[in-house]
Known about the structure:
InterPro entries: Exostosin, Exostosin_GT47
Radius of gyration: 24 Å
Structural class: alpha/beta
Subcellular location: Golgi apparatus membrane
GO molecular function: glycosyltransferase activity
Number of domains: 2
Keywords: Glycosyltransferase, Golgi apparatus, Membrane, Signal-anchor, Transferase, Transmembrane, Transmembrane helix
Distance between the termini: 57 Å
Membrane topology: Single-pass type II membrane protein
Largest sheet: 6 strands, parallel
Shape: globular
Bound molecules: 2-acetamido-2-deoxy-beta-D-glucopyranose
Helix content: 25-40%
Number of strands: 11
Strand content: 5-15%
Amino acid sequence: MANSNIQPHRPVCPKPFFFCLTFLVLLVIPYLFFWVDSGIQVVSHVLPKKKIVSVIANLNTPSRNHEGESTLFKESTFLHQHAPAEEEFTQCNPSNALLKVFMYDLPPEFHFGILGWNGDGKSVWPNIRAEVPHYPGGLNLQHSIDYWLTLDLLSSRFSDRSAPCSAVRVEDSREADVVFVPFFSSLSCNRHSKVNPPETVSTNELLQKKLVEFLTSQREWKRSGGRDHIIMAHHPNSMLDARMNLSPCMFILSDFGRYFPHVANVEKDIIAPYKHLIKTFVNDSFGFDDRSILLYFQGGIHRKNGGSIRKQLFNLLKGEKSVHFAFGSLRENGTDEASRGMHSSKFCLNIAGDTPSSNRLFDAIASHCVPVIISDDIELPYEDVLDYSKFCIFVRKFDAIKKGFLMTLIRSVSREDWTQMWQRLKEVEGYFEFQYPSKKDDAVQMVWQAVARRVPAIQLKVHRSSRFSRFDVST
Ligand SMILES: *[C@@H]1O[C@H](CO)[C@@H](O)[C@H](O)[C@H]1NC(C)=O
Ligand SMILES: *[C@@H]1O[C@H](CO)[C@@H](O)[C@H](O)[C@H]1NC(C)=O
């Protein structure tokens, strides 16, 4: 894990040459002298902290990490101005938190109530120290990020918390970097979309309507126009009725396939992983020669928009040796079967379905089966800090449907290259793991870190929009 391949994508010398040169000389001289252990501290007397942080990142210095673990968490914190010292991660201290989050106390019908938790009629939140409401298994689980983020926030101030805390809940919204809206919208979409006569609208639609009314009347909303609000809408059809009204917010999504670009886009919103459904390959020593299937695909064929490419690929690949290409969902044949298949495969196909993303990618990562991604419009979680080309193969749709292209490409990957990608998959798999309690650099922490990296951009928007608000008498 120590040899992380993650690097910030900024150029080393963005400014004119002379500026750069002076800057580097200033930095490099003390740096060379004191690199061994106290380099960073010494340099910090010479230059302002934020500059050092970016230059150190640019010079691609290995970050010191006592446990030899991934450097990703530290690199991410470098990008944030409140970067706390290492020992402070063990306890959640709001004044040092990466992200301070205010959470609305929405009534249970918006969150744990959908899971059947009733509470005692008095409290809004379950006492998760005593019992954590159960999330059902099955396909709903893939969009369960709402549940994991909310649990993490609820537990963020526990004094005996062992999990790291990228995000800490604060009671006063004026102290917060962002405002979290704890609506389990994917679950609401899965469970409450049916209209039950005599009602004329579904509970899902009703909840969204209530939510918009609630939010737009809050002083937190009025202060920012919603720009610092976080709305989870991971299921592609969730928030269908409210998304236009809530478009200034930061959405947490699986992809942008069903959004207008002005409502959601990669600059404003966050892409989060699906929770994988098949088993993590624990202690995987199943290398190149042990995996007998060269290329694996299992998925639905009857897709609204993406079906045609799946059919074309099926026709191209059906005669190929050591290719498993089968239609049928996980539900039909069980996750055990798919787990066995993916754990025994070198490459796993991810073809755009009815939306650009699918949880197949995250199943492949958990299986350490090198993903072959055929989805021109896919957006990937935390891609600002994670280089997917180190462990995925991307193929343009245009190329993939050429006869022979895909198989030639895959057969040309050497055992050494494959093994490198396989090793990298084992290093990164934790970034895609949702769990409670959350662990260091798992999906929960990674998503919070991704949100934290957006805070300066949000603040810019909020400040610009409030230029005239203080002494405005026209309204
Ligand atoms: C994985 O390996 C560790 C350490 O060798 C062992 O303790 C653990 O039981 C193994 N887990 C599985 C599922 O094999
Ligand atoms: C389901 O599993 C059976 C038994 O392993 C297998 O023969 C069949 O092809 C699988 N079906 C699909 C759709 O993959």
